[in-house]
Every structure is written in structure tokens, then in C-alpha cells.
Write a structure and sequence with these properties.
The complex is a heterodimer. Chain A is mainly α. Chain A has three helices and no strands. Chain B is α/β, with parallel strands linked by helices. The chains are: A mainly alpha, B alpha/beta. Chains A and B meet through helix 2 of A and helix 5, helix 6 and helix 7 of B.
């Protein structure tokens, strides 16, 4: 009986709010962290000289420059 | 007997039932425009549906939370007293935050496939504010504004309710921050109105939400923005303010038409233009100790915090603004059954009012008054000599903890003093731990819950 009462007191609205909010904000932070890390890494790959000939004009420019340099050499 | 039990439960929980029904209606309306079997068929659909349902319920709870803060006596009918209205306000606020915090989370989770790391990017973009510029088409602009408004509401609510639940702020700072919850609600309503989701597919759902939005905004404007104009208050003048150890005794007379109240009720009082005497300009609740038959109001206020301690500096002639009266701790509502009144410390105040309003009724009344030391007894001579002499059925039983070897008042002592609890209505007012303990002991003795009436004078 005593234990039941203690458990009942612990599960207060404050606990429910605290627990739910912690879980929710933590998962959202993980999503934002992984998500934006993934977006940034994709951008870096796209912007790299080797990476991408996938329709990014800057990339094509840089590749062209490399080719030009190569031909000069 | 069963009818009385039903009536008791209906009176105590009718407010909660209304809130539950109000939360279920938008879910049912949402269900009516969606194929339920499809709504939970894939992880995408499951999280999408959960996100929407949590958002709908969270919004209704948020609005109900603002409504419960208007401090109107009609609300007491649904919760059995203003103290319980405030408890409901506290709980609905917390639950609203829980539901609303899962709304964006579930909607973001629908994009995630754990096997494809790229999907986290879509979910992250969903959780980030939308950029607004002139190149957007009208529909895109509307959607971006709706989502950004939702984010402002969400983060505003998170910050303000974290301050309420988890940070101990001085009362006036807390009150100042709490007022902005209405502003966050305005953004939530804007989100609901503009968003092109299921709310725009069902007119009934949209208007149901807008109606609750109007209720919430109305409540916010009534209490927080235009409270000084709309909320009815009565002015009183302090004619006596005496400090008795840690208790301040204040007597006030009306400057105009007096306020109406019943014995056992409480008021919210604010002292105006007294800052130079160190009095904090805040409204706080206190039980009335005088009888409604008297032409003045009497309060006994124990120094428990900075506001109550500051009242030791109150001077004669100070003007007070009173709002009320509130409370369902009114014995006349319970007929002619014998009554047991149990007071702890400053919890004696509503009983002083009740005792002074007694008429020659056949019912017996036993007042058990528990204090730490004899010097803490308030109006002892009146309770011990005058009232029992005037009303033959009134019996005063003091309980001094110090004289009982430090043993706290218990139900065995009360039972012996009042010759059993059979057929008696029991009224309790005192410090929360004492009331919790006595209620538990009374229930263990087989006293029905509907026979126990209490006034939690430390409002949540």
C-alpha cells in the first residue's frame, strides 16, 4: 500500500510534462542534428571538385577549370 | 444512496468530462474525413495521423487552459470550487504542452526511414522555420506563415511552461511570464486558420477549432489584457491592521456597495498604492473570517511568503481591491446533517465565518482546531466561551500538538471526540499535508468521499 502511494505521488503532472518534453525535444534535436549534418555533407560532396557532375553549374565550372589546367600542363 | 454517489461524482468531475468530450470531438471529426484503416497502415500514415490528432487535442486543451484561468464563479459548478478549477487549469496546461510537443515530432518522424539516412534531411527541414520572400506564390506564403506561426506558438509555450513547471520564480515574475501564454495561443490559432491540412478539408473541424480559438482568445483578453476594465472588483478601506506574532489581522469596510459572500468563501485581495509601506501590489486569495451579517470583512493572514510578510506593514486607511467571493466550502449547502469541522493552523478562518453565521439549527457542530502551541489559537475566547454559550449544539475542541507530546491530530482522536462519523458531513481546512493525511485516515475508517469536504487554501 505504501509503495503504491509513493508511485502514485511520483506520477504527477510535472513528471509527465518533464518526461514527455524531454523525450520530444531530445528526438527533435537528434533529427535536426543528423538531418542537417546529412544535408551539409551532401552539399560538400556536391561542391567538391571530384564530386559532381550532376547538374551543378559551379561543379561543371570547376571541372572545366581542372581540364583547362590539365590541357595547359 | 447510489444516486447520491452518482450526483457527487457528476458534480466533482463534470468539468473534466466536458474537457474530455471537447477533446474527442475534433478527433471524431478528423476520423470522419479520413479512412481510418489507411490512416495507420504505413509508418508515414501512422505518424502523420498521430501528429494531427495530438495537435488537435493539444489545441483544445490549450484553449480550455486559458478558459479555466478567467476566475469566474460559474466555472466552480463544474469542478466543485475555484481551487479545483485552478488545479484543472494547471493539469490542462501541462497536458496541452505534452500533446503539442508531440505534434511536430510525429509529423517529422513520418519522413524518416531508418534504412535511408537521407530521410533525416527531409525531417530536419520540416522542423526548421520556412523562409518567407516575395518570390513565393500566395498558397506557398500562406503555408510558410502558418508553419512559422505554429513554431512560434510551440517554442513560446515550451519556454513559458518550463518556467511554470520547473523554475522557481518570484510570484510577480512568474505571473508576468505566464501572461504571454495568451500571445503564444494567438500564434497557434493563426497556425490553425492558415494551415492547408485536414482542418481545411473539413469545414466542421475548422469551425470547431476556430470556435475554441475564439473561446481561448476571449478568455485571454478578458482576464489578462482587459482585466482591469472587465473584471468586477469591490473597493474596501482598511480600518484595522494588527500584527499578532506571525498573523496579521485585517478589518475592512466597503467604500461603496459591499460585496456579497457566503460563510466559508474566499476572496482575492490587492492593496493599492501601498508600495511605500513595503506592501507588494499583487492579488492573493484569503478566506474570509467574518460573518456575512457583519458590515465589515475580517481576514487573518499568516506570514508564509514575501507578500503575506509584507502585510505586517499595512496601515489604517489603505485601499484594497477585492475580487470574489469564491469557493464551494459552504456548509449550508449540505442540509441539516451533523457536521464535523476540522481546522489546522490558519485554516481556522473559514470556520470562524461559519461559526459566527450559525443560526439556531438542530444539527450538532463539532469544531476541532489543531495548532502547534496554545498561543497560536485565533479568537480562542470567542470559540471556547461565547459561541458554545450562544449555540447549544456548537462544541469547540482545541488540539494543541505541544500538549499531546508532539503527536499530530489523528482520526482516532476526532472519532472519539465527536462520537463517530456515521451520518456526519466532515469539513477540512488546513495545511495540505495534514489534509492529505486526515483524508486518507477518514477513508480507511470507511467514511465516504462525498462526505468529506475540503478547502485547499494553498491554491496551485
Amino acid at each position: 500500500m505504501k509503495n503504491n502511494l509513493k508511485i502514485y505521488r511520483i506520477i504527477t503532472i510535472k513528471f509527465i510534462v518533464g518526461f514527455s518534453l524531454t523525450v520530444s525535444l531530445l528526438v527533435m534535436s537528434v533529427i535536426l542534428g543528423i538531418g542537417y549534418a546529412q544535408i551539409n555533407s551532401t552539399k560538400e560532396i556536391d561542391n567538391s571538385p571530384v564530386g559532381g557532375q550532376l547538374g551543378n553549374t559551379n561543379l561543371q565550372d570547376s571541372t572545366t577549370t581542372n581540364n583547362d589546367n590539365a590541357s595547359t600542363l | 444512496m447510489k444516486n447520491l454517489e452518482t450526483k457527487y461524482w457528476l458534480e466533482k468531475y463534470s468539468g473534466w468530462m466536458l474537457i474530455l468530450i471537447s477533446c474527442m470531438i475534433p478527433v471524431l471529426l478528423w476520423g470522419s474525413i479520413n479512412e481510418i484503416s489507411n490512416s495507420f497502415s504505413t509508418p508515414y500514415e501512422l505518424f502523420s495521423s498521430l501528429g494531427k490528432v495530438f495537435g488537435l487535442v493539444g489545441f483544445i486543451l490549450y484553449s480550455a487552459n486559458l478558459l479555466l484561468a478567467v476566475r469566474r464563479s460559474w466555472l466552480e459548478n463544474f469542478f466543485q470550487g475555484l481551487n479545483r478549477v485552478y488545479i484543472a487549469h494547471h493539469i490542462t496546461g501541462g497536458l496541452a504542452l505534452v500533446f503539442i510537443s508531440f505534434h511536430p515530432l510525429f509529423l517529422a518522424l513520418r519522413y524518416i526511414d531508418l534504412k535511408l539516412i537521407d530521410t533525416f534531411g527531409d525531417a530536419a527541414v520540416f522542423l526548421w522555420p520556412r523562409s518567407i520572400d516575395t518570390t513565393l506564390k500566395f498558397v506557398e506564403l500562406q503555408e510558410a506563415v502558418a508553419i512559422n506561426a505554429g513554431m512560434v506558438a510551440f517554442w513560446g509555450m515550451v519556454v513559458l511552461l518550463v518556467l511554470t513547471f520547473f523554475v522557481v520564480l518570484p510570484y510577480r515574475f512568474w505571473l508576468f511570464t505566464h501572461r504571454f501564454l495568451g500571445v503564444a495561443f494567438l500564434f497557434a490559432l493563426l497556425h490553425i486558420i492558415l494551415i492547408t491540412s485536414d482542418t481545411s478539408r473539413s469545414l466542421a473541424l475548422k469551425w470547431y477549432l476556430i470556435l475554441w480559438g475564439i473561446v481561448g482568445v476571449g478568455a485571454f483578453l478578458y482576464r489578462t489584457v482587459f482585466g482591469s476594465i472587465f473584471v468586477r472588483k469591490t473597493r474596501y478601506k482598511v480600518i484595522e491592521a494588527t500584527s499578532l506574532d506571525s498573523i496579521t489581522r485585517i478589518e475592512l469596510v466597503p467604500t461603496g456597495k459591499p460585496m456579497q459572500y457566503k460563510s466559508g468563501q474566499f476572496i482575492f485581495i490587492r492593496f493599492l498604492w501601498c508600495e511605500q509601506d513595503g506592501i507588494i501590489n499583487e492579488a492573493h486569495p484569503f478566506s474570509i473570517a467574518s460573518s456575512p451579517n457583519e458590515d465589515k470583512i475580517r481576514l487573518y493572514i499568516k506570514s508564509l511568503g514575501d507578500f503575506t510578510s509584507s502585510l505586517q506593514g499595512l496601515k489604517q486607511g489603505a485601499i484594497a481591491e477585492i475580487e470574489g467571493a469564491f469557493g464551494r466550502f459552504v456548509p449550508v449547502r449540505y442540509g441539516n446533517a451533523p457536521q464535523v469541522w476540522i481546522a489546522g493552523g490558519i485554516g481556522i478562518t473559514p470556520f470562524l465565518s461559519m461559526a459566527k453565521s450559525l443560526k439556531d439549527t438542530p444539527q450538532s457542530i463539532n469544531l476541532i482546531y489543531s495548532v502547534g502551541t496554545r498561543s497560536e489559537l485565533v479568537e480562542e475566547s470567542e470559540l471556547k466561551d461565547y459561541l458554545p454559550m450562544k449555540y447549544k449544539n456548537f462544541n469547540f475542541i482545541p488540539y494543541i500538538t505541544d500538549e499531546q507530546s508532539g503527536k499530530y491530530l489523528d482520526v482516532d482522536f476526532i472519532e472519539k471526540s465527536v462520537a463517530g462519523f456515521e451520518g456526519k458531513e466532515i469539513f477540512l481546512c488546513g495545511p495540505p499535508p495534514m489534509m492529505r493525511s486526515l483524508k486518507r485516515q477518514l477513508k480507511n475508517k470507511g467514511v465516504k468521499r462525498r462526505k468529506i469536504h475540503s478547502e485547499e487554501f494553498a491554491i496551485t
